[in-house]
Amino acid sequence: EITTNNHHRNVCIQIHIVFSNDKDEYYPINYLRNVALRACKCKYVFLVDVDFIPSSNLYDKLLNHLPKSRECLVIPCIEVMDKKWKYDGDNIDKIFGMESSELIMHFENEEIKQFQRQDATNYLKWLITNDNQYQVEYQPGYEPYIIVKNDKYLCEYDERFTGYGMNKVIHIAKLGLKQKFIFNVFCDGFISTLQHKKSRDYYRTYGKDKDEKRESWIRALFNLAMSELEDAL
Predict the structure, then answer these.
(1) Sequential pLDDT tens for the chain (233 residues)
(2) Among 148, 169, 143, which residue's Cα sits nearest to residue 157?
(3) Closest CA relative to residue 18, chosen from 1, 34, 41
(4) What is the dihedral of CA 133, 139, 143, 144, to 10 degrees?
(5) CA distances from 132 to 46, 62, 73 (A)
(6) Whole-angstrom Cα distance, residue 143 to residue 23?
(7) How much is the CA Rg of the chain, to the nearest whole Å?
(8) Which residues contact 2 (CB under 8 A, 6 or more apart)?
(9) CA 192 to chain centroid
(10) Can you tell me the distance from the alpha carbon of 183 to that of 67, in angstroms, rounded to the nearest whole number?
(11) Is beta strand 182-186 parallel, antiparallel or unpaired with respect to 133-136?
């Protein structure tokens, strides 16, 4: 555990190491997410992938808009198209400090795009609204990045899912359907990531040299998990 002071804030970083003896094992993504959740001491958690970077002053902007219990605060995420606009010294501050009008222009120029499985967020409304946030309905397949209260209603990830495919989708489904979370989109900030190469497990599951059984197994597991979820409603 590392404690430091960053911009007059106390920052505590916990590092947990998980070992694997099998180099061909599918990445235990949901197990690792649960390791982090179980160790978290904070009142709120941001369920986000490590390669996303927050827009300017996002932390300060969020302080007055933190979600209540059984609420998800959706942070819109954009993908920066590497061939169009790189993360370099001249552009990086521009990317993280963009206002709505600039975001619209870069969307139109195809220099940025919305991240996958985010349709329910309604990016058009996000770009033009004057509201601080707005509510959206859960949709099957929705996979937003969210801030939630770290309490008894926040369920853990399904550790049966490993590697690539449906591991976050089923977690959001549990929050939306079983735990009855509502989804509010935050309008004064975003997170971004560079377009990047797919993971090894993606290619092992969906690539041209994929294991034919693996994709079917993921689909069957997802259908089973959804069936279990529906039976619990």
Answers:
(1) 655 555 566 777 888 888 887 777 899 999 999 999 999 989 999 999 988 989 988 999 999 999 999 999 999 999 988 666 666 666 666 777 778 888 888 888 888 899 999 999 999 999 999 999 999 999 999 999 999 999 999 999 999 999 999 999 999 999 999 999 999 999 999 999 888 889 999 999 999 989 889 999 999 999 999 999 999 88
(2) 169
(3) 34
(4) 0
(5) 18, 10, 11
(6) 28
(7) 19
(8) 12, 13, 14, 15
(9) 11
(10) 10
(11) antiparallel
Q: Give the residues across from 138 on adjacent strands.
A: none
Distance CA 80, CA 93 (A): 13
Cα dihedral 45, 49, 50, 56 in deg (nearest 10): -70
- Write the pLDDT tens digit of every residue in 156-179: 999 999 999 999 999 999 999 999
Are residues 29 and 50 in contact, defined by beta-carbon separation less than 8 angstroms? no
C-alpha pair distances (Å), 115 with each of 27, 110, 163, 185: 22, 13, 19, 15
No. of helices (H) and no. of strands (E), the chain = 8, 11
Query: How big is the CA angle at 99 (ends 96 and 101), to the nearest 5 degrees?
Result: 135
**Separation of alpha carbons 131 and 212, rounded Å:** 47
Block residue for tokens 């007059």: 8
The model's pLDDT over 30-71, given as tens digits with 9 standing for 90+, comes to 999 999 999 998 999 999 998 898 998 899 999 999 999 999
